[in-house]
Design a protein that fits this description.
The protein has 451 residues and is mainly α. Helices cover 66% and strands 1% of the residues. The chain has a two-stranded antiparallel sheet.
């Protein structure tokens, strides 16, 4: 009997060793979601009984750091439940990303050429020692940012809620902001703090740092000069530096006179403050200081595009990623200029990278369109609301036009799947895209008429 058990153990670990690391990571996410849902079902976690559908949706939203909610977090969850929610957010945003580095690089799984190619593309590293250093940087950045964020938020929450509850609200929102989760314990989000200076500085600072990616943060700390930064860091900062002013300015222009959003404020400073917060939070963070359901349709469409772009690779953000978007734009410009080589900041970008961008974008759009089709097929709702919900789920953003609570069990299952794919899909796809297969046969070139 012992021999049989030993053989089963060897067979199990052999199977694990040959399983692609992204598949294992996806399994870890799934296990964490199920465990989180089980804890949410405990009487100690909620003030009222909740269904398995509620628990599973909330756990998925937390682990994938999305922020879509079918329950009022502050009213339904006890302090213990909120602590579990914050723990899942932290693991989803930090722990599993750190595990991704460790599993692919340092823990008992074969990294090999395929794993190294993926790590090189996604983390811009070349050695296991550098990967270990990156993990150390991640832990330091998280601790410093979240502790500093919580301390600063206490200036707003402690005077309003008292010492202990104020501290907890500060810690919860700091964790949620840095991990780009968008969960809030307040029924109407951060709308009451629309013009609060602390909220409008600390919360965006946390989710911007968390959203640009740990590789970029590590690169900035390691090399102080722009010239010494990697191509990845330069592209990421270029894209972020363009998208933030553009989204803030466009929100202000489109919503300036809308009585449901900016129009309710009398002075320009307040309107610009709300525009700043809502413009930078849209790509991934999911917090809101204004009524999202009151947005003009044009603004909602802009938000959908920003949510699909998302933040940076190896960050707590979702979407196709800013670097993917920038490379796609550069490739388009190169095509119209009849350039055969794609370059940026004195470096060339290989054809393999361009093909990866095309694949990531195409698959992401397919997932989004399939999700929209399935929801419109199963729900009689406004098409824009449904499209907004799907884009928010795939980009793991968490903004909603109020449609989340209208979802049926089928709709919740669809959104759960989209949130899961939005979080683990790019990682899994990246692994297989990094696998080189040398063709044994070369065929004569043919012509396809395009456009």
């Amino acid at each position: 009997m012992e021999i049989s058990r030993s053989a089963l153990k060897r067979r199990f670990w052999r199977r694990v060793a040959t399983t692609p690391p992204p598949a294992i990571l996806a399994g870890l996410y799934a296990v964490l979601i199920v465990l989180g849902a089980a804890v949410f079902k405990l009487p100690i976690s909620t003030t009222v009984p909740i269904t398995w559908s509620d628990a599973l949706f909330t756990a998925t939203s937390a682990v994938t750091v999305t922020g879509l909610a079918v329950l009022d977090t502050g009213l339904v969850f006890t302090l213990f439940g909120e602590m579990v929610l914050a723990f899942l957010i932290q693991l989803g945003g930090l722990g599993l990303m750190t595990f991704a580095v460790l599993i692919l690089a340092a823990l008992g799984l074969p990294v090999g050429i395929t794993g190294r190619l993926y790590l090189r593309d996604d983390l811009n590293q070349s050695s296991l020692q550098q990967l270990s250093d990156l993990v150390g940087t991640i832990l330091k950045v998280v601790l410093i940012c979240e502790l500093a964020g919580a301390a600063l938020l206490c200036m707003t929450f402690v005077p309003e809620f008292g010492l202990w509850r104020g501290i907890w609200e500060s810690v919860f929102h700091s964790v949620s902001a840095f991990n780009n989760a968008g969960f809030s314990t307040f029924s109407n989000g951060l709308v009451p703090y629309a013009t609060d200076p602390v909220i409008n500085i600390v919360i965006p600072a946390l989710f911007i740092i968390g959203g640009i990616g740990y590789v970029v943060v590590s690169d900035i700390f390691r090399a102080k000069s722009w010239r010494n930064w990697s191509l990845h860091t330069k592209i990421m900062l270029l894209g972020t530096g363009f998208l933030i002013p553009w989204s803030v300015a466009m929100f202000a222009v489109l919503e300036w006179t809308n009585p449901a959003t900016l129009g309710q404020f009398d002075d320009a400073v307040s309107k610009l403050t709300v525009s700043w917060f809502q413009g930078v939070t849209t790509r991934t963070a999911g917090f809101n200081t204004t009524d999202i359901s009151g947005l003009h349709d044009s603004t909602a469409m802009m938000f959908i595009s920003l949510m699909l772009i998302g933040g940076g690779p190896t960050s707590t953000a979702g979407g196709i990623k800013v670097t993917t978007f920038v490379v796609m734009i550069l490739a388009t410009i190169a095509f119209f200029r009849r350039q055969t080589q794609l370059t940026a900041f004195g470096r060339s970008i290989g054809l393999e990278q361009v093909l990866k961008v095309m694949a990531l974008t195409a698959i992401s759009l397919i997932v989004v369109f399939v999700g929209i089709f399935l929801l419109t097929l199963s729900h009689d709702g406004d098409f824009l609301d449904i499209s907004f919900e799907v884009a928010s789920a795939f980009g793991t953003v968490g903004l909603s036009r109020g449609y989340t609570t209208e979802l049926s069990d089928t709709g919740r299952a669809i959104i759960i799947a989209i949130m899961f794919l939005g979080r683990v899909g790019p990682l899994t796809l990246g692994f297989f895209l990094a696998t080189r297969v040398t063709p044994r046969v070369r065929y004569p070139e043919g012509q396809v008429h395009l456009g």
